[in-house]
Amino acid sequence: MSSTGPTPCSRSWSISEDSLRRYVHFASESCIQELLSASDSNRIGNVGNDGWKILTDLDNGVEISKRRSGSFHTFRSRWLLRSVSPQQFITVANAIDAAKLKQWEQDLVEARYIKDLEDNLSIIRLRFGENSKPLFRNREFIVYERRETMEDGTLVVAVASLPKEIAAGLHPKQNNAIRGLLLQSGWVVEKLEDDSCMVTYVVQLDPAGWLPKCFVNRLNTKLVMIIENLKKLAQGCPADGDK
């Protein structure tokens, strides 16, 4: 009698579109509340005891902070964009789209929609190429994206991975791709009274329990670069009344 080693099992779930919509709507609602909480806690210049530790506080108003709960690492970047007109604000809001991240992330080789569940709710595939940094090389993420405008005008964009079984059913993993896990990420863009806006970006990584310092430093730099590009987009948009 001969025996062979265990065969890797790749599970996938077939799920109806209605069930998928209900699941994603529930999951994204939780993500939105977490994002709103992160954007509201310990405002720049205020002191709080909510677990956020400031890593970088630059003179230009950028704040990078980190919070850890067990093996989960969450990073937050905040930037006050001053003198941004309503029209410019809309440009910034429209630029925040998971399928447009290639504008800022050169390692991302593909970002495309798989399915639209509602007008503001989509399933997207993000794929990094062979030339990406080691921790991202050949990784892909099957995520949902939900855009919601609150009663006060605050825009929230929540992006997070689908469970791997559901993701496999929607889009089977291909060849040498590694299916990554984005636990939670998203944007909160708040319109302020003085024609300015506060942009907050939050990202929670795989619960690996340990992150190399070089990766943390690169992520912090990337957070600043992303919002810097958003700022340039806003400033490049004609203000109200300009022709």
UniProtKB/TrEMBL annotation:
GO terms for cellular component: cytoplasm. Pfam families: START. InterPro entries: START-like_dom_sf, START_lipid-bd_dom, START_lipid_transfer. It comes from Salix dunnii. This is START domain-containing protein. Residues 49-217 form the START domain. GO terms for molecular function: lipid binding.
